[in-house]
Design brief:
Layout lengths: L1 H15 L9 E5 L2 E6 L2 E7 L6 E3 L5 E2 L4 E8 L2 E6 L2 E8 L4 E4 L5 E2 L4 E8 L2 E6 L2 E7 L6 E3 L5 E2 L2
Length: 155
């Protein structure tokens, strides 16, 4: 019964959220963790096991850069932010308790891209025309690499 309630909650919660200027307002960070964009701020919420209520962790609030196009999670405490045609990576540093840009991981998106989303840690999907292309961050040379064999044609 808990599973049904959870999926009903996700359906209602996700279904009520709208899109503004093509930006997701709500997205998952992992199990029972969500990011909510309010104005120009990303707020972080988690489901408290103690009282089963959504609780904001204000220490994780992140002011988004002016002119950002989209935001999505790469995993716990890692986000991708699209500015212009560049995907920038940020992570929450527990050492200094703030969001930090990982400038060396910036990725220039192909001209004419339609959408970008994460497949997991340092793996992204980019929709170009009617093709979904898969990119990953190569551990060997720390460069974004397209894996052409995983391209998917959208109808």
């Amino acid at each position: 019964m808990k599973i049904i309630r959870f999926f009903a909650f996700v359906f209602v919660f996700a279904g009520c959220c709208s899109f503004v200027h093509g930006q997701n307002q709500v997205f998952a960070f992992g199990d029972y963790k969500i990011g909510v964009i309010e104005g120009n701020t990303l707020k972080y919420y988690y489901l408290s096991e103690r009282n089963m209520r959504w609780t904001e962790d204000a220490s994780l609030a992140f002011t988004l850069p002016n002119g950002y196009k989209n935001v999505f999670a790469f995993g716990d405490y890692k986000i991708g932010v699209i500015e212009g045609n560049t995907l920038k990576h940020y992570y929450f540093s527990e050492r200094n308790m703030r969001w930090t840009e990982e400038a060396s991981l910036a990725f220039t998106l192909p001209n004419g891209y339609k959408n970008v989303f994460a497949f997991g840690d340092y793996k992204i999907g980019v929709i170009e025309g009617n093709t979904l292309k898969y990119y990953y961050l190569s551990e060997r040379n720390m460069r974004w690499t397209e894996e052409a064999s995983l391209a998917f044609i959208l109808n």
